[in-house]
UniProtKB/TrEMBL annotation:
InterPro entries: CoA-transferase_III_domain (IPR050483), CoA-Trfase_fam_III (IPR003673), CoA-Trfase_III_dom3_sf (IPR044855), CoA-Trfase_III_dom_1_sf (IPR023606)
The EC number(s) this enzyme carries: 2.8.3.16
GO MF term list: formyl-CoA transferase activity
Source lineage: Bacteria, Pseudomonadati, Pseudomonadota, Alphaproteobacteria, Sphingomonadales
Entry protein name: Formyl-CoA transferase
Species name: Sphingobium chlorophenolicum L-1
Amino acid sequence: MTQPGILNATLQGLRVLEIGHFVAAPFCTRLLGDLGADVVKIEPLTGDPVRQWGEQVDGRSLWWSIHGRNKRSLAMDLKAAEARDIVLRLVAQCDVLVENFRPGQLDRMGLSETTLKEANPKLIIARISGYGQTGPYRDRAAFGVIGEAIGGLRHLTNHPPGSYDLPPVRVGVSIGDSIAGLYAAFGIMAALWQRDRAGGDRAMRTLDVALTESVFSMMEAMLPEYGRLGKVKQPTGGGIATAAPSNAYPTADGGFMLIAANSEPLFARLAELMGRPDMVRDARFAGNAARVAHAAELDALIAGWSGTMSTAELEAKLTAADIPSSRAYTAADAAHDPQYLERGMVREVMDPALGPVLHSGIVPHVPESPGAIRWTGPDIGAHSDEILSGAGFDAAAISSLRQKGVVG
């Protein structure tokens, strides 16, 4: 499994097999691929469902261009009798297997952990599922949205109770899936370190990542506040329940400015900028605890001031005063932002099917050993022949598999 067009990438030489679909597992492997890992994605003969998601250009998904980047595609019917042997040959060459089927589905395909371990005793397996591989909910259907709901996030993404009568809103992206993918990638690197450290145990490691638990683990003090005080954390709209002022404030031209002046020096600078230095001495706003208790009053004062200026004027004043602030970026703002451009977080890449496409860059930045966007999301089965050839199948065997409808 070779990696053309990249030198000294952080994960160069790491071999990853993805048997995933939709978002969580593919997001995990995209992170690894961005840092140089050789990722082989097994997808159905009709392609990963995400190929049909989002805006399309001539029937091709713009999301897929980035979601499938830096991966080699092997189109295969995993239910075919021959599929098991193909997967095991690939597993024998890999360091990592990432999957996000329902618990037990790979076992029913003849790909149990025991079988995988026999093929490669050093394999790291990352399993991503809705509820995890054990427990009373393990067999329930789940997507990222369910992880966000049970993890506690959906309850909190709203305005304060009584001020809004619509359902809790979505964050705006598949955040539950992405968080699970991040945890899986982190777990993979931890397991590889343990496997490969000097004198370490080189036996197979299995990671069990649940969408629900991944979101739940991000909920800060929600659980201890309930357990110790019986307090159920409630949504706070654009504000923060533990610090003030920190919120989104209106501008004269219909925009919103995020202002986080929630330390004593920052609040003093904001009060001075507003022409209200007296606020620092106001008992309602003297210290963070007092400001939190009177956040609604404070936010109203700030909003009355911010609403007299355009977004650009307000942004300039806040920046000059060195107060953490920003307008709420749109895609257009991000695409032209000089900070993103300077650090390569907005890149124009050439997609063979779509032409020039903007991609987000690679995180984390590793200046001494950078990752790269080697290619965009490939066609279904674009690398089937080279992957199978690398696994020991000759041209006649590959042709036979294709004729039988096993691979595409």
